[in-house]
Design a protein that fits this description.
globular, alpha/beta, two-stranded antiparallel sheet
Length: 227
């Protein structure tokens, strides 16, 4: 089995759609942009917020930074808990820990919020390392988040082929697969998150799990890694 497993948070461990999309809606309204259809805001789930405001609504960098602050005005007291843990995740994490796997969260969400969410769902105890972005904009890319998690695990010095055999990065978006590939990890996509059709395949995921049960089986079993 893998000795180290890094997990994305949003769309991989929890379903944060309501809290994130309503907070984005709140931020856009500040700029006079009305977006009543929350489904149109699903692409905000996963990538760094600043990039999404700039890409999807063409805000300048300065405006995007301001939008992030307005977003957090709603997200911090309300949106953070408009969230649900994905069925089967606690059992999977418990099972992996019992088998001796070291677990990490590697999320683009601000680290302070990551801790709150993991505590809220009572799964923080399963993780040896928890890494998110900084509220000041530091660690603003998935690659930087993954690098910090690997540094805390003391496995950055391993050769890529060793890391690929020992460590998996699990996530629901292309950014997670990009982070895995940047450091030679096995990139595992999950279909139950928020990836667009064909997104994980196009990014070159090493494996794609349709369900939590399938993900758990893959991470625990050597023979599936070799198929």
């Amino acid at each position: 089995m893998f000795q180290y497993c890094l997990f994305d948070l949003d769309g991989t461990l929890t379903d944060p759609k309501e809290g994130i999309t309503k907070s984005v809606q709140h931020a856009l309204k500040h700029f006079g942009i009305e977006e009543p259809d929350l489904n149109k805001l699903r692409p905000f789930i996963g990538p760094p917020l600043k990039d999404s405001f700039m890409e999807f609504y063409h805000l300048s960098e300065e405006q995007a930074l301001q939008a992030m602050q307005v977003y957090r005005e709603r997200f911090k007291p309300i949106g953070i808990f408009e969230n649900e843990i994905i069925e089967g995740i606690p059992e999977m994490l418990k099972g992996l820990k019992e088998k001796g796997c070291k677990l990490a969260v590697a999320s683009s969400k601000p680290e302070v919020f990551v801790h709150q969410i993991l505590q809220h769902f009572e799964i923080e105890q399963y993780f040896d390392v928890i890494v998110g972005s900084g509220l000041d904009g530091s660690r603003g890319t998935k690659e930087e988040v993954v690098e910090e998690a690997l540094r805390q695990f003391h496995i950055l010095e391993l050769r890529d082929e060793e890391r690929k055999a020992k460590c998996a990065m699990v996530g629901d978006r292309k950014f997670d697969i990009q982070g895995a590939k940047a450091y030679g990890l096995t990139g595992v996509g999950v279909r139950f998150g928020f990836a667009g059709e064909g997104e994980l395949e196009a990014e070159g995921a090493d494996y794609i799990a349709e369900t939590v049960e399938e993900l758990h089986e893959f991470l625990e079993n050597d023979h599936l890694q070799m198929e």
